[in-house]
């Protein structure tokens, strides 16, 4: 007598009194089960692997969040036609915190939401191969059964769909199932929302740009109730890809001074220091007026509108194993750190990662060093002057600085005495501290004496050439400035 069961069961075959054999029977996996094997669980906005993810502090980033939600709800006439929004800003500007906050708001309002939070150090979240399947799984878990059945059928017909191109995967696992769902009679008052955060942390810059192109291709026909929010640094390949897209299809938000980030950072710091004063084990030893107003001013200025600096400071100062007042003095440079103490470890790791990943880093540091050490005058921030002084070809600085666009900005300075002039601007005030401290920057250290010597030598070389400089020389408009520059750098000796 024989017994057979479907699924993963024991199957007993009785072939006689002394010959009973038990086999393990495993039924073939269904399409949805196959999909689950290709999901990066840690990329969800509410994943347990991302426990306590960064999100916006209460009553901060209000204007940015409102603008994004108005876009999703179709309430802003300027962005109503856009199906994709790009949220971008410098490293540490708080993009992931905003994306996380938006995801939580949408979940609370019962939107259909799928998210992928890239992370360069994670084997699943640092590559694009898990992106489409992870988004498809989340949509299948929240949309009606028709969508899930279509995705499952795709896997059953083509188990190797995960090896196909991003375009093929998006078509088969997202677009076609959504169209079938719509044809079945499904309708919604709210758009389905996909959030892709940290696109710049995907391992391949070319793939980063490809994800953008495929996203626009997915929505090209404008026949899906779907909007995509992408957050990233303005890296070269990403910016170039967005710049080629039709204006009306894309909404952009730059995390710059238009969104009062300094006021938000001050509010964040005040709240966090108040928490320290009420919860820290040594709170009874903290003075009532701590921290002083000028200390707060310094921290806000050093943050340069980037939340990562303020967040790093708070984590360091709040340590329950140390005195908060002493640790804040270390941050402010009043007291030296103890041996092995790294007040800005998180920030240093960010700077190191960005600088390690660029070509021509030595030349980039020469340019940054010039901006850091030059005499205090608007003229010396001019891209034209720096290129002429360092004997670079016009346009070189713009090309080079694209590789560190999350730290350095090349932009028109409208208040320049000569009118709108292209200038180099350091986005993080704390970057200078990092580069000038060899214990922190190591291979990227800017040696003040060596840099001044190098620039003084260049000054002398240019001055020596003065009689032979032709009127069409790149340095010709700046000839009169050279003696003052030489005096500035010569004074260090």
Automatic annotation (TrEMBL):
InterPro entries: NPHP3-like_N, P-loop_NTPase
Gene3D superfamilies per record: P-loop containing nucleotide triphosphate hydrolases
Record's protein name: Nephrocystin 3-like N-terminal domain-containing protein
Pfam family for this entry, one: NPHP3_N
Boundaries of every Nephrocystin 3-like N-terminal domain copy: 78-233
Record SUPFAM superfamilies: P-loop containing nucleoside triphosphate hydrolases
Superkingdom as given in the UniProt entry: Eukaryota
Keywords assigned: Repeat
PANTHER family: AMELOGENIN (PTHR10039), GPI INOSITOL-DEACYLASE (PTHR10039:SF16)
